[in-house]
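Entry 14. Structure prediction run on the chain below.
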Amino acid sequence: MKKRGLLLVISGPSGAGKGTICKALLDKNEFWLSVSATTRQPRQGEIHGKNYYFISRDEFLEKIENDDFLEYAEVYGNFYGTPKSNVIQMLENGKDVILEIDIQGALKVKEVFPEGVFIFILPPSMDELKKRIIKRGSETPESLMTRFKSAYKEINYVSKYSYAVVNDTVEDAVKKIESIVIAERCRVDRMKDTILNSKEELIHEQLYD
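Output returned:
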């Protein structure tokens, strides 16, 4: 029997480095990154099916009616959502799937997919988080303060997650997540079929050998 893949849901405040960590994980491992659907227009260089699935508002609303999303939200007038069928298919094919989504979306996924592995990326300190946001060079003093306050509030949600990974360096953070994956694969509740088959084989050997 093919082992079911793990669903890794990775979130964290803006500036924590979750996007960089996910890219490094994908470079080193055979994970599959879920691509979100959105009603917003593609930006320059974005590719349909790679960055997002760019669909119309009517099509998105129809998918909501058909329960086609693991989670969705409306942000600044545009919808964003995680297609359910793609994720389920990959998991059933034994692929480990990464969802890099915001905290609101992650908590919605947890409601419908509690067996997922929920990982919260933390900055080494709030000072370091502020430095990383400033380093982007895309923030005004006002938007920087807004983003920093939002990040401070978001960190309070860490208790809703299975694991917390401090992003001191990307390399160390990736190693920690890889260790989490190994540990999750060894959980008894994920190995029921393997344990059952082993017990049946042992009984067979005792009876017939």
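The chain has a mean pLDDT of 87.
Filed with the rest of this week's runs.
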